[in-house]
Specification:
Elements (H helix, E strand, L loop, with lengths): L5 H5 L1 H7 L4 H22 L4 H16 L6 H14 L3 H11 L6 E2 L3 H22 L5 H21 L1 H6 L2 E2 L5 H19 L7 H22 L4 H6 L7 H20 L9 H8 L9
Parallel strand pairs: 1-2
Length: 284
Protein backbone atom coordinates (compact mmCIF):
# COMPACT_ATOMS: atom_id res chain seq x y z
CA UNK A 1 0.00 0.00 0.00
CA UNK A 2 1.39 3.42 -1.01
CA UNK A 3 1.15 6.01 1.76
CA UNK A 4 -0.64 9.18 0.64
CA UNK A 5 -0.17 12.65 2.10
CA UNK A 6 -3.78 13.14 3.21
CA UNK A 7 -2.86 16.41 4.91
CA UNK A 8 -1.94 17.93 1.55
CA UNK A 9 -4.96 16.45 -0.23
CA UNK A 10 -7.74 17.23 2.25
CA UNK A 11 -6.63 19.68 4.95
CA UNK A 12 -5.62 22.88 3.16
CA UNK A 13 -5.74 25.01 6.33
CA UNK A 14 -3.54 22.59 8.28
CA UNK A 15 -1.21 22.15 5.32
CA UNK A 16 -0.74 25.93 5.22
CA UNK A 17 -0.05 26.09 8.96
CA UNK A 18 2.37 23.17 8.59
CA UNK A 19 4.81 25.39 6.69
CA UNK A 20 5.55 27.05 10.04
CA UNK A 21 6.54 23.79 11.75
CA UNK A 22 9.97 22.11 11.76
CA UNK A 23 10.09 19.35 9.13
CA UNK A 24 10.31 16.41 11.57
CA UNK A 25 7.39 17.69 13.65
CA UNK A 26 5.34 18.33 10.49
CA UNK A 27 5.98 14.73 9.38
CA UNK A 28 4.66 13.42 12.71
CA UNK A 29 1.58 15.62 12.42
CA UNK A 30 1.12 14.38 8.87
CA UNK A 31 1.31 10.73 10.03
CA UNK A 32 -1.35 11.49 12.63
CA UNK A 33 -3.62 13.22 10.13
CA UNK A 34 -3.12 10.44 7.56
CA UNK A 35 -4.32 7.85 10.07
CA UNK A 36 -7.33 9.92 11.15
CA UNK A 37 -8.29 10.72 7.56
CA UNK A 38 -7.91 7.07 6.51
CA UNK A 39 -10.43 6.06 9.20
CA UNK A 40 -12.78 8.91 8.30
CA UNK A 41 -12.71 8.00 4.61
CA UNK A 42 -14.18 4.59 5.42
CA UNK A 43 -17.29 6.29 6.82
CA UNK A 44 -17.50 8.78 3.95
CA UNK A 45 -16.90 6.51 0.94
CA UNK A 46 -19.81 5.51 -1.28
CA UNK A 47 -20.22 1.93 -0.23
CA UNK A 48 -22.91 -0.29 1.24
CA UNK A 49 -23.23 0.37 4.99
CA UNK A 50 -22.48 -3.26 5.81
CA UNK A 51 -19.23 -3.08 3.81
CA UNK A 52 -18.18 0.11 5.59
CA UNK A 53 -18.83 -1.43 9.02
CA UNK A 54 -16.79 -4.47 8.00
CA UNK A 55 -13.93 -2.28 6.73
CA UNK A 56 -13.81 -0.28 9.96
CA UNK A 57 -13.87 -3.48 12.05
CA UNK A 58 -11.01 -4.89 9.97
CA UNK A 59 -8.97 -1.72 10.38
CA UNK A 60 -9.62 -1.70 14.12
CA UNK A 61 -8.44 -5.32 14.35
CA UNK A 62 -5.37 -4.52 12.24
CA UNK A 63 -4.60 -1.65 14.60
CA UNK A 64 -4.97 -3.86 17.67
CA UNK A 65 -2.79 -6.59 16.15
CA UNK A 66 -0.22 -4.04 14.89
CA UNK A 67 -0.37 -5.03 11.24
CA UNK A 68 2.67 -3.08 10.02
CA UNK A 69 2.09 -4.17 6.42
CA UNK A 70 -0.34 -1.25 6.42
CA UNK A 71 1.88 1.90 6.42
CA UNK A 72 -0.92 3.99 7.95
CA UNK A 73 -1.07 1.69 10.98
CA UNK A 74 2.71 1.43 11.16
CA UNK A 75 3.04 5.23 11.16
CA UNK A 76 0.44 5.53 13.93
CA UNK A 77 2.04 2.91 16.18
CA UNK A 78 5.45 4.52 15.63
CA UNK A 79 3.90 7.75 16.92
CA UNK A 80 2.29 6.05 19.93
CA UNK A 81 5.60 4.39 20.88
CA UNK A 82 7.71 7.50 20.31
CA UNK A 83 5.39 10.08 21.88
CA UNK A 84 4.07 7.67 24.53
CA UNK A 85 0.38 8.56 24.46
CA UNK A 86 -2.52 6.30 25.35
CA UNK A 87 -3.93 4.06 22.62
CA UNK A 88 -7.32 4.64 24.31
CA UNK A 89 -7.40 7.98 22.48
CA UNK A 90 -7.39 6.02 19.21
CA UNK A 91 -10.26 3.82 20.39
CA UNK A 92 -12.24 6.99 21.23
CA UNK A 93 -11.65 8.06 17.63
CA UNK A 94 -12.81 4.67 16.32
CA UNK A 95 -15.98 5.00 18.43
CA UNK A 96 -16.66 8.41 16.90
CA UNK A 97 -16.34 7.18 13.34
CA UNK A 98 -18.34 4.05 14.15
CA UNK A 99 -21.22 6.24 15.33
CA UNK A 100 -21.44 7.61 11.77
CA UNK A 101 -22.05 4.12 10.36
CA UNK A 102 -25.83 4.07 10.62
CA UNK A 103 -28.67 4.39 8.13
CA UNK A 104 -29.43 7.76 9.75
CA UNK A 105 -27.28 9.79 12.15
CA UNK A 106 -29.09 12.33 14.31
CA UNK A 107 -27.70 14.10 17.36
CA UNK A 108 -30.39 15.31 19.75
CA UNK A 109 -28.60 17.38 22.38
CA UNK A 110 -25.60 19.58 23.08
CA UNK A 111 -24.10 16.72 25.07
CA UNK A 112 -24.31 14.34 22.09
CA UNK A 113 -22.79 17.01 19.84
CA UNK A 114 -19.86 17.62 22.21
CA UNK A 115 -19.22 13.91 22.84
CA UNK A 116 -19.18 13.26 19.11
CA UNK A 117 -16.88 16.24 18.49
CA UNK A 118 -14.49 15.07 21.20
CA UNK A 119 -14.32 11.59 19.72
CA UNK A 120 -13.65 12.58 16.13
CA UNK A 121 -11.61 15.77 16.69
CA UNK A 122 -10.87 16.51 20.35
CA UNK A 123 -8.87 13.28 20.29
CA UNK A 124 -6.82 14.64 17.38
CA UNK A 125 -6.18 17.89 19.25
CA UNK A 126 -5.00 15.91 22.28
CA UNK A 127 -2.66 13.73 20.21
CA UNK A 128 -1.33 16.79 18.38
CA UNK A 129 -0.54 18.40 21.74
CA UNK A 130 1.35 15.27 22.78
CA UNK A 131 3.39 15.44 19.57
CA UNK A 132 4.21 19.07 20.39
CA UNK A 133 5.37 18.03 23.88
CA UNK A 134 2.61 19.73 25.86
CA UNK A 135 2.64 18.65 29.53
CA UNK A 136 0.34 20.96 31.53
CA UNK A 137 -3.13 19.51 32.17
CA UNK A 138 -5.00 22.75 31.47
CA UNK A 139 -3.09 23.08 28.18
CA UNK A 140 -4.07 19.52 27.17
CA UNK A 141 -7.69 20.48 27.90
CA UNK A 142 -7.16 23.51 25.66
CA UNK A 143 -5.88 21.23 22.88
CA UNK A 144 -9.06 19.17 23.15
CA UNK A 145 -11.04 22.42 22.98
CA UNK A 146 -9.30 23.48 19.78
CA UNK A 147 -10.08 20.11 18.17
CA UNK A 148 -13.74 20.37 19.24
CA UNK A 149 -13.93 23.96 17.95
CA UNK A 150 -12.66 22.88 14.54
CA UNK A 151 -15.11 19.98 14.37
CA UNK A 152 -18.01 22.29 15.23
CA UNK A 153 -16.81 24.54 12.41
CA UNK A 154 -16.84 21.53 10.05
CA UNK A 155 -20.35 20.59 11.14
CA UNK A 156 -21.56 24.18 10.63
CA UNK A 157 -20.03 24.30 7.14
CA UNK A 158 -21.23 20.88 5.94
CA UNK A 159 -24.91 20.82 6.91
CA UNK A 160 -26.12 20.39 3.31
CA UNK A 161 -23.44 17.87 2.37
CA UNK A 162 -24.03 15.83 5.55
CA UNK A 163 -27.79 15.78 5.06
CA UNK A 164 -27.26 14.12 1.66
CA UNK A 165 -25.57 11.29 3.58
CA UNK A 166 -28.49 11.20 6.05
CA UNK A 167 -26.40 12.75 8.82
CA UNK A 168 -27.98 15.46 10.95
CA UNK A 169 -25.52 16.61 13.58
CA UNK A 170 -27.47 19.85 13.97
CA UNK A 171 -30.87 20.93 12.57
CA UNK A 172 -30.81 22.19 8.97
CA UNK A 173 -31.54 25.85 9.59
CA UNK A 174 -29.43 28.98 9.86
CA UNK A 175 -30.20 29.62 13.54
CA UNK A 176 -28.79 26.21 14.47
CA UNK A 177 -25.74 26.87 12.31
CA UNK A 178 -25.20 30.25 14.01
CA UNK A 179 -25.63 28.70 17.47
CA UNK A 180 -23.07 26.01 16.64
CA UNK A 181 -20.57 28.61 15.43
CA UNK A 182 -21.08 30.52 18.69
CA UNK A 183 -20.34 27.35 20.68
CA UNK A 184 -17.28 26.79 18.49
CA UNK A 185 -16.19 30.35 19.26
CA UNK A 186 -16.26 29.58 22.99
CA UNK A 187 -13.98 26.61 22.38
CA UNK A 188 -11.62 28.66 20.18
CA UNK A 189 -11.42 31.26 22.97
CA UNK A 190 -10.76 28.59 25.58
CA UNK A 191 -7.91 27.14 23.52
CA UNK A 192 -5.99 30.41 23.13
CA UNK A 193 -4.08 30.78 26.41
CA UNK A 194 -3.20 27.08 26.55
CA UNK A 195 -1.10 27.57 23.39
CA UNK A 196 1.45 29.36 25.58
CA UNK A 197 2.32 25.95 27.08
CA UNK A 198 3.36 24.63 23.67
CA UNK A 199 7.11 24.97 23.06
CA UNK A 200 7.62 28.45 21.66
CA UNK A 201 8.87 27.31 18.24
CA UNK A 202 5.52 25.59 17.56
CA UNK A 203 3.15 28.26 18.81
CA UNK A 204 2.81 30.34 15.66
CA UNK A 205 1.80 27.35 13.54
CA UNK A 206 -1.01 26.42 15.94
CA UNK A 207 -2.15 30.03 16.18
CA UNK A 208 -2.34 30.20 12.38
CA UNK A 209 -4.32 26.95 12.12
CA UNK A 210 -6.67 28.23 14.83
CA UNK A 211 -7.28 31.59 13.11
CA UNK A 212 -7.64 30.20 9.58
CA UNK A 213 -10.16 27.57 10.64
CA UNK A 214 -12.10 30.01 12.80
CA UNK A 215 -12.38 32.28 9.76
CA UNK A 216 -14.57 29.64 8.07
CA UNK A 217 -17.20 30.16 10.77
CA UNK A 218 -17.12 33.93 10.33
CA UNK A 219 -17.56 33.52 6.57
CA UNK A 220 -20.60 31.32 7.21
CA UNK A 221 -22.13 33.98 9.47
CA UNK A 222 -21.69 36.52 6.67
CA UNK A 223 -24.12 34.51 4.53
CA UNK A 224 -26.88 35.92 6.80
CA UNK A 225 -29.53 33.34 5.92
CA UNK A 226 -29.99 29.71 4.94
CA UNK A 227 -30.69 30.40 1.27
CA UNK A 228 -27.38 32.23 0.79
CA UNK A 229 -25.65 29.50 2.77
CA UNK A 230 -27.07 26.78 0.51
CA UNK A 231 -26.07 28.64 -2.67
CA UNK A 232 -22.49 29.25 -1.53
CA UNK A 233 -21.32 25.63 -1.75
CA UNK A 234 -18.36 24.55 0.36
CA UNK A 235 -17.02 27.58 2.22
CA UNK A 236 -13.25 27.86 2.46
CA UNK A 237 -10.54 30.41 3.24
CA UNK A 238 -8.71 31.62 0.13
CA UNK A 239 -4.97 32.27 -0.11
CA UNK A 240 -5.26 36.03 0.49
CA UNK A 241 -7.39 35.46 3.59
CA UNK A 242 -4.88 32.88 4.83
CA UNK A 243 -2.07 35.40 4.49
CA UNK A 244 -4.10 38.01 6.37
CA UNK A 245 -5.04 35.56 9.15
CA UNK A 246 -1.39 34.54 9.38
CA UNK A 247 -0.39 38.17 9.94
CA UNK A 248 -3.03 38.47 12.68
CA UNK A 249 -1.64 35.28 14.19
CA UNK A 250 1.74 36.98 14.57
CA UNK A 251 -0.04 39.58 16.74
CA UNK A 252 -1.62 36.72 18.71
CA UNK A 253 1.86 35.29 19.17
CA UNK A 254 3.15 38.59 20.58
CA UNK A 255 0.13 38.78 22.90
CA UNK A 256 0.87 35.29 24.22
CA UNK A 257 4.47 36.18 25.01
CA UNK A 258 3.30 39.17 27.10
CA UNK A 259 1.04 37.02 29.28
CA UNK A 260 2.59 36.28 32.68
CA UNK A 261 -0.19 34.54 34.56
CA UNK A 262 -1.26 30.99 33.76
CA UNK A 263 -4.81 30.65 32.55
CA UNK A 264 -7.35 28.26 34.02
CA UNK A 265 -9.65 26.15 31.87
CA UNK A 266 -12.76 28.08 30.85
CA UNK A 267 -15.25 25.42 29.73
CA UNK A 268 -15.59 23.03 32.66
CA UNK A 269 -19.39 22.78 32.28
CA UNK A 270 -18.99 21.70 28.65
CA UNK A 271 -16.25 19.24 29.59
CA UNK A 272 -18.48 17.84 32.34
CA UNK A 273 -21.06 16.94 29.69
CA UNK A 274 -18.41 14.91 27.85
CA UNK A 275 -17.15 13.38 31.11
CA UNK A 276 -20.62 11.95 31.74
CA UNK A 277 -19.88 9.67 28.76
CA UNK A 278 -16.06 9.41 28.57
CA UNK A 279 -13.33 10.10 31.11
CA UNK A 280 -11.13 11.84 28.57
CA UNK A 281 -8.77 13.09 31.29
CA UNK A 282 -7.58 9.48 31.80
CA UNK A 283 -6.04 9.83 28.33
CA UNK A 284 -3.61 12.52 29.58
Amino acid sequence: MIKKNYLKIYAKSFYWAGFFLPKKVYEKCSDLYDFCRFIDNIADEENDLKIKIEKLDNLKNEFKSKNFNNPIIKGMWNLIDEINFSSEIIYDLFDGVESDLKEKVKLNSKKELLVYSYRVAGTVGLMMAKILNVKEEYALKGAIDLGIAMQLTNISRDVIEDSKSNRFYIPSNFNSIKDTIMIADQFYNSSFYSIKEIPIKFQLSILIARRVYRKIGYKILNKNNFENYKKSGKIYVNIFEKVYESILSVLDYVKLQLIKKKSTHQLQNEHNLILEEINMYERF
